[in-house]
Amino acid sequence: MKHLLLSLPASLLLLGCQNTPFSQEQEIPEAVNTELAANIASPVEISQALLADEAVDVIHPVADVDITLSENDTHVSDDIWQRVRDGLTFDVPENKRVLAQRNWYAKHPKYLDRVAKRAEPFIYYIVEELEANNMPIEMALLPIVESAFDPFAYSHGRASGMWQFVPGTGTRFGMKQNWWYDGRRDVVASTKGAISYLKYLHKYFDGDWLLALAAYNSGEGRVKRAVKNNARKNKKTDFWSLDLPKETRAYVPKLLALADLVKRPEDFDLKLYEIENKAVITQVDIGSQLDLAKAASLSGLSLAELQRLNPGFNRWATDPDGPHYLLLPSHKEADFTAGLNKLSEQDRLAWQRYKIKSGDSLIKIANKFHTTPELIKQVNNVKGTRIRAGKHLLIPVAATSLDHYILSQDQRLASTQNRKQAGVKTIHTVRSGDTLWDISQSYKVSSRNIAKWNGIAPRDTIKPGQQLVIWQNAKLTKAKLANASTGEQAVMRNITYRVRRGDSFARIADKFNVTIRDIERWNSLSRKKYLQPGQILKLSVDVTNNI
After folding, report:
1. What is the pLDDT of residues 414-460, one digit of tens each?
2. CA–CA distance, 20 with 8 (Å, rounded to integer)
């Protein structure tokens, strides 16, 4: 997130942030109410209070894992990139937006190599699926733009996986999401979902692939509105002519730039990392729930290697309700299947006999053993939620220490929270009624940073008892203590803010480090009602550190 340094005259209304930085090309009303203008904060007072709402970077929470995909490291005789090259059909214009992206990729060959190595296990499958669905082969490059081909990637906009689906769109296109499993990270489920979504968008925009790609990035509604706005003004309605967010304006050129580099790498002194044009992983049916540590042992893989190929599983085992398959290196399939067939149903998981104590509940027991109440009920034929102290339950548990499942959701979170940041680290235990915005105000940090430090999205719900890592600037922390000891009061300024399209109570509260409750109180409003573009809000902003 970048600070937006304002250079507008103080006599102008302070405008909010959208997905693009403020542009002086935006229209400013000629007549501004004098009474309102008199109360507007100067740029100096709020230069660090107003944050630009830039597109959030995609986060890669785990390190890459080298996986042996064949028994013999042989020379690549049939390169997948040649197959992709032969199928490219999109026209690539030589305009500034494409050239800027192409130049960047061409100057960073190590980045392209790193991405290609991540793609190596999966790109053959993706190309096969695209061809089976009569899709442009260019879409095989889209995961580079979306996630750098990292199925564990996530963004603070709640998007996750190689194809970067938000929860709602993931569900809409067939990606199951629960405690055990997230189909947005499953390479098979998310690839099928991405193809379905892109086909839908292609039809929605009357066969225009560039508009479909723009909508994949920013939503069909936003792109459709941009098309209608241009049509009303008798302007062109192609992608290049639309007024779209900054991220989207760069998104399509990135894909076209990559396609151009793949088509003629020698023109840019590039040598693409070679990938064999054949299946190197196999989808293996496992029938029912299986501990991932046992699966790794049966396949001759490390647990990290197995989880890298099967990132959809959140916990120490596969989902008891499916999907019941694993992706494995093709040369490991036979040994794995033979070993799996020798396992009894009971041996697929480890078990522990637990005596119910007074005060226990199914939820409490499930949390203790890192499983779910539903699975405990299913295994023990428990009806309802009542259990009796003194009775015993059979609990499925991880076959090895949870620390060994280094790519599970819990361990990824631990890794994220333990990552060293600048400043002083504090652990905040969430209390009833807490919100990220209230916590950010208390610690004088951005709620987006709190989300980043804790591997969540700014809009995610937080729960009482949840522990959040907070990193504060050491100088600000000392100043806060000094102010408390000397009785120094915060310097407040009343400003007037004009609501912009896309604003919400939460977004404005975050920008100005105030609470939604404050905005409601100052303006006699309710958060239950939508804000309207052009609406004027009164805000009281702490500018102690900005003057």
Report:
1. 777 777 787 788 889 888 888 888 888 888 888 888 988 888 877 77
2. 17
d(CA 192, CA 176): 12
Tokens at 479, concatenated:
């100043």
* CB-CB neighbours of 144 under 10 Å: 22
Count of CB atoms situated within 10 Å of the CB of 296: 24
pLDDT given for residue 30 in this prediction: 33
Residue 323 has pLDDT above 60, yes or no: yes
pLDDT above 80: residue 7:
no
pLDDT, tens digit (0-9, with 9 covering 90-100), for 235-273? 999 999 999 999 999 999 999 999 999 999 999 999 999
CA atoms within 13 A on the CB side of 286: 31
Q: What does the alpha-carbon distance between residue 137 and residue 89 come to, in Å, rounded to a whole number?
A: 8
Radius of gyration of the chain (CA): 27
Exposure string for 327-364, b = 16+ CB within 10 A, e = fewer: bbbbebbeebbeebeeeeeeebbbeeebebeeebebee
Enter the tokens of residue 212: 């479909």
Which helix (H) or strand (E) is 315 found in, with range? none
Are 300 and 139 contacting, i.e. CB atoms less than 8 angstroms apart?
no
Q: How far apart are CA 142 and CA 139, in angstroms?
A: 5
CA distance linking residue 113 with residue 423, whole number of Å: 34
Most distant pair of Cα atoms in the chain: their distance:
83
Instruction: Report which listed range, 16-20, 149-153, 223-227, 456-460, is most confident.
Output: 223-227
DSSP 106-118: HT-HHHHHHHHHH
- The CA-based dihedral angle spanning residues 408, 412, 414, 416, taken in that order and rounded to the nearest 10 degrees: 180
| Residue whose token pair is 């692939």 | 209
Rounded CA separation 273/351 (Å) = 45
- Residues annotated catalytic, as ranges: 146
Is 270 strand, coil or helix?
coil
This prediction's pTM: 0.67
Nearest of 315, 282, 323, 318 to residue 299 by alpha carbon: 282
Average pLDDT over residues 192-210: 98
Cβ–Cβ < 8 Å for 327, 283: yes
Q: What is the pLDDT of residues 506-544, one digit of tens each?
A: 888 877 878 888 898 888 888 888 888 888 888 877 654
- How many residues comprise the chain? 547
